[in-house]
């Protein structure tokens, strides 16, 4: 690997780490206060809803009374 490319990757990694460390403490307290309240007038759009996290999110939102729009690229599911 070329030395200049290695330097660019190292600078990029340090920059990303600094951004995460700067933003994370500011965002973390607000995430703890967020609650998912049931509401029939609330709409939830889920992409990738045929499996994994998307499927679980669809089921959870529907159980809590939200209207769910589920999208996927897999036609068979």
UniProtKB/TrEMBL annotation:
SUPFAM superfamilies: NAD(P)-binding Rossmann-fold domains (SSF51735). Pfam families: Epimerase. Residues 44-72 form the NAD-dependent epimerase/dehydratase domain. It comes from Kipferlia bialata. The chain crosses the membrane at residues 6-27. This is NAD-dependent epimerase/dehydratase domain-containing protein. Gene3D superfamilies: NAD(P)-binding Rossmann-like Domain. Keywords: Membrane, Transmembrane, Transmembrane helix.
């Amino acid at each position: 690997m070329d030395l200049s490319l290695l330097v660019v990757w190292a600078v990029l990694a340090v920059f990303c780490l600094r951004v995460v460390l700067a933003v994370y403490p500011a965002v973390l307290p607000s995430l703890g206060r967020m609650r998912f309240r049931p509401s029939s007038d609330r709409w939830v759009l889920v992409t990738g809803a045929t499996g994994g996290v998307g499927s679980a999110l669809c089921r959870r939102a529907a159980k809590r009374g939200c209207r769910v729009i589920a999208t996927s690229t897999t036609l068979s599911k």
